Amino acid sequence: MDDDIRPRATAGPVDLASAHVVITGGSSGIGLATARLLAVRGAKLSLIARGRDRLEAAANELSAAARVADVSDSQALTRALAELEAAQGRSCDVLITSAGLARPGHFLDLSDEVFRQMMDVDYFGTLHALRAVVPGMVKRGHGSVVAVSSAAGLVGIFGYSAYGPAKFAVRGLMESLRAELKPCGVHVGVVFPPDVDTPQLTEENRWKPQETRAIGGAIKPLSAERVAEAIIAGIDRRRFLICPDTGTRLLARSGSLLMPLLNREFDRRVRAVRRKHGNT
Ligand SMILES: NC(=O)c1ccc[n+]([C@@H]2O[C@H](COP(=O)([O-])OP(=O)(O)OC[C@H]3O[C@@H](n4cnc5c(N)ncnc54)[C@H](OP(=O)(O)O)[C@@H]3O)[C@@H](O)[C@H]2O)c1
User: What is the pLDDT of residue 71?
Assistant: First the structure.
C-alpha cells in the first residue's frame, strides 16, 4: 500500500477559525450564505463561480480570494483550486461544493443537452473539485468535504428526470467516499436541502411543470442561512447526513420505507392537476 494513503487515526473536526475553506458556487444562494457565516467564524475563504460580477462582489464583501471557473471544466477548476491554495498560502482544509444547476421539465420535453448539462455541472462539477483536493487531505490525514445534493437526490420527483439523477449520483459518490475517507481522517458530508429561497429556485420555478408545483404543495422554502447553519454544524460535528429540516431528515433516514406512501400521495396530486388543467 502507498504510504500516503495509509489509514490514520480518527482526526478531530477542522478548526474553522483558522481553516482555508473553498466554496464552489460561493457567489450566490447557499454557497454565499455559508461563506458569510464562515467569515464570522474567521475562516480564510476562497470562492469559485463563473460570473465575475457576483463573485467579485462576494469576495469584496467577505475579504475572500476568488477565481472564475466553470466546475464542469476539470482543468480550469483544478487550476483555480491550485491558484487559490497558493494565494491563501494554505492547502484546502474544507471543500464545500455548492455550484449547481436545476432544470425541471417533462421528460418528453427536455433536450438531451439538459440531461448532459445536469450531470456535467451537478455531478462532474462536484467530482472534479473532490478529485483535486482529496489527495492532499488524505496525505495530511485531515480535512472536510461537503457536497450539496438535494431532496431530489433522495426520492424521484415528477419533473426532475434530468436534475434528480445528477443529485442521486452526488449522494452515491459521497456515500462511497465517506467509507473510504473515514479511515484517512477526512470528514465527508452530504447536504439534502428541500426548496431553498435562492436565485436558483426563482429560475427553477420558471420551468416547473404544474405537477411538480403541486407535489411541492404550499411548503415554504427554507432560507439559505438555515441551510448554511446546518452545513457548518455538520462540519463542526463531522456529520455525514446534513439535513436542514425535519422532513428531509425523515426522507433521508426512511425514504425507501416511505416510498409507497409518498408515491401514492404524489400520484394523487398529479391526477388532481391533470383533472383541473388537462395533460400539461
Ligand atoms: N435552491 C434550492 O431550492 C435548492 C434545493 C436543493 C439543492 N440545491 C442545490 O444547492 C446548490 C446551490 O444552489 P443555490 O440554490 O444556492 O443556487 P444559486 O443561488 O443559483 O447559486 C448557485 C451558485 O453556483 C454557481 N454555479 C452555477 N453553475 C456553475 C458552474 N458551472 N461552474 C461554477 N459555478 C457555477 C453560481 O454562480 P455562476 O452562475 O456565476 O457560475 C452560484 O454561485 C446547488 O447545487 C443546488 O442544486 C438548491
Answer: 98
Q: Is 147 in the pocket of ligand 1 (CB under 6 A)?
A: no
Distances (CA, A) of 62 to 1, 147, 160, 271: 42, 22, 34, 48
Query: 199 CB less than 6 Å from ligand 1?
Result: yes
Nearest residue CA, atom 29 of ligand 1? Answer: 99
Determine the residue of 30, 53, 190 to mutate for testing ligand 1's pocket, defined as the one with the most ligand atoms within 8 A of the Cβ atom. 30
**Taking the domains of the chain in order of start, what are their residue ranges?**
8-277
Query: Closest ligand 1 atom to the C-alpha of 101?
Result: 47
Q: Residues 157, 221, 144, CA angle at the centre, nearest 5°? A: 80
167 in catalytic set: yes
The CA-atom distances, in angstroms, between 38 and each of 7, 42, 197 are 29, 6, 20
Topology of domain 8-277 in CATH is: Rossmann fold (3.40.50)
pLDDT single digits (tens) 168-211: 999 999 999 999 999 999 999 999 999 999 999 999 999 999 99
Segment 211-233 shows an average pLDDT of 93
Cut 0.85: pTM above it: yes
pLDDT of residue 218: 77
